[in-house]
Amino acid sequence: MQFELDVNGERHALDLDPRTSLLDALRDHLGLTGSKKGCDHGQCGACTVIVEGRRINSCLTLACMHEGDEITTVEGLGAPDDLSPLQRAFVEHDGYQCGYCTPGQICSATAMLGEIEKGWPSNVTEDLETQVEASIEEISERMSGNLCRCSCYPGIVDAIRQVAKEEARA
Amino acid sequence: MRAFDYIRAGDRAQAVRDGAGPETRFIAGGTNLLDLMKLEVMAPERIVDITRLELGGIEETADGGLRIGALVTNSDLAADARVRRGWPVLSRALLAGASGQLRNKATTGGNLLQRTRCYYFYDRGEPCNKREPGSGCAAMGGMNRILAILGTSEQCIATHPSDMAVAMRALDARVEVEGQDGTREIALDDFYCSPGDTPHIETVLAPGELITAVILPAPAGGRQIYRKVRDRSSYAFALVSVAAVVEVENGKIAKAQLAFGGLGPMPWRDRAVEEALVGEAPSPALFDRAADILLTEAKGHGGNDFKIPLTRRTLAAVLSQATEAAA
């Protein structure tokens, strides 16, 4: 089936089997291998990308359902010589060891900070009607859809907290 | 994944017409359906994409309730200011489920139609009456610690996995559906089927009937609590959960609406439990009596025997919290 995808500001024409997941379309057909395939069942978060400003598991959605959507992958967040604030913070805080989950962690955290800014509550938010802050507890809960088998969680949380603080000052 | 024809529905009439075809499924968030299709536990020949239909938005109804469009995501519903203020048990239940990524995709209609996470339903190498009617139930006598203790049959002991639906049942939600013969509303109380001899039939929806919205009545007030007990503190299904709307007046329980997750083939509600509580002064003995009523027919299957005392304790904890004097 023929359709177009808008990824990191570029439009791509594709002709794919409708079974193709968004993740497989990105990796195997557009050469964007930053997004990783971990479990392929929405359990690990390594495939997290941002679609229409929202983080989703790209393994659990069909590419053909996203025609017209604005899709951002880790490649669209920054480049080696122009890192995004979270990418820089992950380097500074050792937010990874093997690095396989890192693109998903960074896409997830990027959108997650936007969710906090919008005032979305989480399961650990005590009062549903007050503005939440990016505390360790809030970050851990909100990032539970991203697993790190190297268990670099302390570094990941530190990196996200640092960016949350920088953004709050900005 | 087996091959399928992909149809993008342009309007509702087309969706319900195409949806009524054989071996056809609607897709919206797709987080559960595609997972099951990858494993070939589900193998529809056609899928009808309803995500371009006008089924979003949350509107206030004339009687002070809410009409929640079927395509409203779990994230948007949990974060809606009206829901957080008037129906907090629903926000709490939604936030207790899945992960941030999944809640951004999963929809209100799809969440109601989630399939069980019974290991044997997922494992095509094992018999399962829900996956393959008549093949048997491997969970009976198998690994069943996550499975049901109420409302089961000899053919199936699967649980319904939703948190959202548990809160909605406590809140007396109704499901609005559209089919080829028009629209109708179904109380959530009447929406799910008992497994009996046909555990593969989970709801009263006819082929092609499309969930268009969920209707909540006006805010129920009272103290609203969703308590979920699970194996890890985030991103895990409930072993036992309780959605409670409880009001105390002059030292007596004036209102008690209780629904339970992790116990049965559907979000569980037992009016006899509520009747036993209303009009009584809260006390540990009363809560224990409520649990006796709830668990009269409870049946463990070995691995899940622990759910019976766990339900008793979780209910007592929730009722105690819901009825304690305001600090």
From TrEMBL, chain A:
One of the Pfam families matching this protein, by short name: Fer2
List each copy of the 2Fe-2S ferredoxin-type domain by range: 1-77
A GO cellular component term found in this entry reads:
periplasmic space
Q: Which domain of life is it from?
A: Bacteria
Alphabetized GO MF terms: 2 iron, 2 sulfur cluster binding; metal ion binding; oxidoreductase activity, acting on the aldehyde or oxo group of donors
By its UniProt entry, which SUPFAM superfamilies does this protein fall under?
2Fe-2S ferredoxin-like (SSF54292), CO dehydrogenase ISP C-domain like (SSF47741)
Q: What InterPro entries does its record include?
A: 2Fe-2S-bd, 2Fe-2S-bd_dom_sf, 2Fe-2S_ferredoxin-like_sf, 2Fe-2S_ferredoxin-type, 2Fe2S_fd_BS, Aldehyde_Oxdr_Iron-Sulfur, Beta-grasp_dom_sf
- Protein name as annotated: 2Fe-2S iron-sulfur cluster-binding protein
Give the species: Limimaricola litoreus
Automatic annotation (TrEMBL), chain B:
Q: Has UniProt tagged this entry with the keyword Flavoprotein? A: yes
User: Which key words are in the record?
Assistant: FAD, Flavoprotein
Q: Which SUPFAM superfamilies match?
A: CO dehydrogenase flavoprotein C-terminal domain-like (SSF55447), FAD-binding/transporter-associated domain-like (SSF56176)
**For the FAD-binding PCMH-type domain, which residue ranges apply?**
1-221
A GO molecular function held by the record: oxidoreductase activity
- What Pfam families does the entry give? CO_deh_flav_C, FAD_binding_5
Protein name according to UniProt? Xanthine dehydrogenase family protein subunit M
